[in-house]
Write a structure and sequence with these properties.
The structure is a homodimer.
Chain A lengths: L12 H8 L2 H12 L5 E2 L9 H14 L2 E6 L2 E6 L1 H7 L3 H11 L16
Antiparallel strand pairs in A: 1-3, 2-3
The first copy, chain A, binds a DNA duplex through helix 3.
Chain lengths: ~120, ~120
DNA sequence: CCAATTGTTCAATAACTTTTGAACTAAGGA
DNA sequence: TCCTTAGTTCAAAAGTTATTGAACAATTGG
């Protein structure tokens, strides 16, 4: 059970930009970037949208090649495709994330900690 | 007769990204970047869309703060707001333009020369 | 097996975006 | 003044995207 992802050379700039042009999706990407390396499951993002709507936005991100989703049991673990994006569009992701951090009109990235309970 | 433009601190990242996510507008921006400094009138872009449609896309770019339009007689001279974009979102415009140049799925920027006829 | 958890799909709707042609304005040149 | 050039505005049509709730599927733990 693997989900469809474009390969690196199929990632399209206008599609990536369009996908990042939505505030919910930009927030998802910022959150992923802030926890980079850690695979996060979808329900991490439930403060950003309803479950159904999240499914929609996460599919858009995945289909655009911005994120990767791996099926692990009943979870989908989501990661940023940083290496692929950097290879295809050097500097783009970093400048978008830095720009988002500078844009005071956007909410700060959520700081849920993810330590295991002791 | 001046047209409405957002000031620098009003430029919003998701709006800019959304606006650049359209292939016609991305092509306009690439062309402006390739002729940087030169103010170009709207009809420079008639190969990209119809006159009416161009008016629509150029308004979107202007309202997002990506371009500036100055009324000069019967022309609107369009320039990239590079300094403002660089101030607000450092590196973003450069990486978008570089990414567009790398994206072989996008058409090469049109090379109309603009020498005055002899 | 049963129930809970995680997330998807579907159909409907609402909201927005893009594109078009026809009519228009405003400036400039003959 | 009349014609042309440059571009806008408007309303309609077409297309696309976002959001919702209800129903569904798959896995896991008891």
């Amino acid at each position: 059970m693997t989900l469809p992802h474009p390969n690196t050379d199929q990632i399209s700039l206008p599609i990536v930009l369009g996908v990042l042009g939505d505030p919910t999706r930009l927030a998802i990407v910022r959150y992923l970037a802030s926890k980079e390396g850690l695979p996060l499951n979808c329900s991490r993002f439930l403060d950003l949208a309803s479950k159904t709507n999240l499914s929609y936005h996460l599919a858009k991100l995945r289909e655009a090649g911005v994120t990767r989703a791996e099926v692990v049991g009943t979870n989908r673990m989501i990661t940023l495709r940083r290496a692929d994006l950097d290879a295809r569009f050097p500097g783009l992701l970093d400048s978008v994330i830095a720009a988002a951090a500078d844009d005071t009109a956007l909410p700060a990235v959520g700081g849920h900690d993810l330590e295991m309970p002791a």
